[in-house]
């Protein structure tokens, strides 16, 4: 009799304690985990960027680079040194009308906050969001700490559910991306010993590269009214 | 005045001496070098001799070497919106 009650109490105890101890905590449930990936993303039709153009191979490439020559022709004709120093005004603002698909879907993208973008600086991509600190792999010429740069070449801009893909670049009127030059950073001095065979002389080569630090101050997608108004 | 824009795509290694001589005469010493020559029967004949090695197109004006370099340069992707006083 006593043994039976002990047995029963033990069984009941397991019943009672089972749901809390055996099952994993709520945040590990697969249904909850799936929420993060269940949303579908909409991507524009013209998602495939043009392949990187190789200059001088064929005549069609020469045709493609024609607008580029016109743009650069102004700078090279006016100033003899061909160094394209960062200008204080926007060098090129496209005047073509915005595509209908972009016009349709841009409100969806701009409605969702916290965007990311892939901006290209000297043709190198950097994935950024607002508030990021970006250490460029080079020392940017012609800028000083405190300058505000406007980044105007982006290949894609996205939010949680939508992505706007450029071909290859997004129209720069569609977004606003500013970065503040925070300062420069330098790596520790590297010393490389150069030796030659059968010679006692050891040459040391020092290198200490410096890098520009940018802070992305804002990144926002404009609405159609802002662009045209 | 029209010009031939001639780019050497393949080297003349292993070809007869004449081919490399023609390339020398055109001013093509290494691959991917681009030269401009005025359109004339003489230059056309030279191009015909090495037509398998070069890429030819006709342009209005020849470009200088710095100009060609400028064309290859990628877009900086930024401009200074507001500079601090220096």
From TrEMBL, chain A:
Q: Which SUPFAM superfamilies match?
A: L21p-like (SSF141091)
Spans annotated as Disordered: 47-97
Locate the compositionally biased regions of type Low complexity: 75-92
Q: Which GO terms describe its molecular function?
A: structural constituent of ribosome
Q: Which GO terms describe its cellular component?
A: mitochondrial large ribosomal subunit
Any Pfam family the entry gives: Ribosomal_L21p
Q: Where is the composition biased (Polar residues)?
A: 56-68
Which family does the record claim for this protein?
Answer: Belongs to the bacterial ribosomal protein bL21 family.
What name goes with this protein? Large ribosomal subunit protein bL21m
Q: Which organism is it from?
A: Xylona heveae (strain CBS 132557 / TC161)
TrEMBL record, chain B:
Q: Name one GO cellular component term.
A: large ribosomal subunit
Localization recorded for this chain is:
Mitochondrion
- Per the record, the major location class is mitochondrion
Biological process terms in GO annotation: translation
Large ribosomal subunit protein uL30-like ferredoxin-like fold domain residues are 4-54
User: Which keywords does the record carry?
Assistant: Mitochondrion, Ribonucleoprotein, Ribosomal protein
What Gene Ontology molecular function terms does this protein carry?
structural constituent of ribosome
| The keyword rRNA-binding belongs to this UniProt entry's keyword annotation | no
Q: Return the Gene3D superfamilies for the record.
A: Ribosomal protein L30, ferredoxin-like fold domain
Q: Per the record's keyword annotation, is Phosphoprotein included, yes or no? A: no
- UniProt-listed InterPro entries: Ribo_uL30_ferredoxin-like_sf (IPR036919), Ribosomal_uL30_bac-type (IPR005996), Ribosomal_uL30_ferredoxin-like (IPR016082)
Function summary: Component of the mitochondrial ribosome (mitoribosome), a dedicated translation machinery responsible for the synthesis of mitochondrial genome-encoded proteins, including at least some of the essential transmembrane subunits of the mitochondrial respiratory chain. The mitoribosomes are attached to the mitochondrial inner membrane and translation products are cotranslationally integrated into the membrane.
Family membership: Belongs to the universal ribosomal protein uL30 family.
Q: Record's PANTHER family?
A: LARGE RIBOSOMAL SUBUNIT PROTEIN UL30M (PTHR15892:SF2), MITOCHONDRIAL RIBOSOMAL PROTEIN L30 (PTHR15892)
Q: What is this protein called?
A: Large ribosomal subunit protein uL30m
Per the UniProt entry, what species is this protein from, by scientific name? Xylona heveae (strain CBS 132557 / TC161)
